[in-house]
Amino acid sequence: xxxxxxxxxxxxxxxxxxxxxxxxxxxxxxxxxxxxxxxxxxxxxxxxxxxxxxxxxxxxxxxxxxxxxxxxxxxxxxxxxxxxxxxxxxxxxxxxxxxxxxxxxxxxxxxxxxxxxxxxxxxxxxxxxxxxxxxxxxxxxxxxxxxxxxxxxxxxxxxxxxxxxxxxxxxxxxxxxxxxxxxxxxx
Length: 187
Hints:
The chain is an alpha/beta fold and 187 residues long. It has one domain (3-186): Rossmann fold. It is 54% helix and 12% strand.
């Protein structure tokens, strides 16, 4: 990679980030705030890099984003407990790893946040479908086309890119903005 390639990558990323609809981010954040204030929890999932982003976002909610004086918010990354992930994957098939946890932990009105750059991850899709049946509020962060999650998740943030790295970077930015809005609302 040359210096010009670095600049081009950064330009592509920043143009993508600025194309995200701020009204959608704000609307989703306000829905999350409302549900958290009502005592509901946030369940977050994703595969690969998105699994780490799910853990990062859960950490922002449980720990803090910028306000160390605010209360901890109820958020779980469904990617964190490797005993659950590997046991369900082994016993029931990898496509059930998140669905089983939705069955165990999700209640009506909870927020289920799915991170999937393609929008086609079978385990994420099955979990969102199950969450819808449980009357959870489903939110998906995906790439440009939304994949199979498009039309399954109630709310979508689609990042206008096909480049996995930029989509994941944008998911983190959106997650940080939502964390800040929710934190401000409950502080």
